[in-house]
Amino acid sequence: MTQRLDYFAIAPELFKPMMEQENLFKNGTLEYSLVELVKLRASQINGCAFCIHMHSHDLRAQGESEDRMQLLNAWRESTLYTPRERAALAWCEALTRVETIGAPDADFDAVATVFEPREQVLLTLLISAINAWNRIAIGFHTSHPVDEEASAA
Predict the structure, then answer these.
(1) How far apart, in Å, are the Cα atoms of 102 and each of 69, 76, 96, 136?
(2) Buried b (16+ CB within 10 A) or exposed e, 98-112
(3) Residue 108 to residue 35: CA distance in whole angstroms
C-alpha cells in the first residue's frame, strides 16, 4: 500500500489540537496501560495497521505482556483485564461501533462505577480521538514501519 500523502508534512498546524489532546491523555488520571489498550482495541476494530503497530509497540516498550495484547480482541473471555479495563474496553467497543451498538446504558453504567465523572469524559474523548486517528491513517494509507521495511527489501 502506498501512502496517499504525508498529512503531517502538509498541514502540521491542523494537527496541533489533536497533539495537545494526546498530551492530556498522557498526563491525565487514566493509567498508561488502560489508555494504550483502548487505543489498540479501537484500532483493531477499525483495521488500522499503522495504529495497531504503534500501540502494540508502545505497550510492549512499557512492559505490557504479550498475552494481554494477543488476547485483547477476546478480552470478554479472559481474566487478564481489571474491572476498570473491562469497563473501558466495553465503552470503547460501544462508541467505536456506535452505528450498530449505540451507547448502551449497561456499558455506561459499568464505566460510571469505576471512573470518576471527569475520567468518564477523558475516556470518551480518548475513544473519540483514537477513532479519528484511525480514520486519518486509513484514509491516507499510512503504512506501518514493517511495510516500509518490506518494500525496501
Answers:
(1) 26, 19, 9, 23
(2) eeeeeeeeebbebbe
(3) 17
Task: Say whether pLDDT at 151 is over 80.
Answer: no
The string of pLDDT tens digits covering residues 11-57 is 999 999 999 999 999 999 999 999 999 999 999 999 999 999 999 99
The three grid cell numbers given for residue 115, joined into one nine-digit string: 471512573
Is residue 137 a contact partner of residue 48, using CB atoms and an 8 Å limit? yes
Q: The whole model's pTM is what? A: 0.93
State the Cα angle at 64 between 112 and 78, rounded to 5°.
60
Helix/strand/coil (H/E/C) assignment for every residue in 83-150 = HHHHHHHHHHHHHHCHHHHCCCHHHHHHHHHHCCHHHHHHHHHHHHHHHHHHHHHHHCCCCCHHHHHH
114 Cβ partners below 8 Å, 6+ apart?
Answer: 83, 84, 87
Around Cβ 58, how many Cβ atoms within 10 Å? 15
